[in-house]
Amino acid sequence: MSETVFRLGKKHFFDTKKFPRGFAKSGDFTLGEENLLTQYGDTMLGLESGVLQPENAEEQRFLQVLDNPDLAESKIEKVWMKYVRLSRGRKRFHTLNGRNKPDAADDYTDDEPSLTEED
């Protein structure tokens, strides 16, 4: 993992409401991403909410990334943007059936010749 001057959180970060079994067990995050969120998530949440003030250039850049997520470059920035998208975004729901109903003619075709007594 690359060296960072980003502050470690004062406590481990967990989101038991959206990810009750943990970040990695949700299937959305890798073990490395879970590690970053657990260690630095408290600081990132504090910076985002305004409770903490940035102490270095990396934390100042993090605040800029919050305003424009397309600027995310570091692993910490990318994992926080992913966390925000998954925890606060709309949940996708996939059904097993489609919206469009097929035409009645498509449901049944009679390709076999009819049986008659002409033979």
TrEMBL record:
Which intervals of the chain are annotated as region Disordered? 94-119
| Composition skew (Acidic residues), residue ranges | 105-119
Q: Record's superkingdom?
A: Bacteria
* Pfam families xrefs: DUF413 (PF04219)
What is the similarity comment for this entry? Belongs to the MaoP family.
Which protein is depicted? Answer: Macrodomain Ori protein
Task: Please report the organism this UniProt entry assigns to the protein.
Answer: Vibrio ostreae
Classification from the root reads: Bacteria, Pseudomonadati, Pseudomonadota, Gammaproteobacteria, Vibrionales
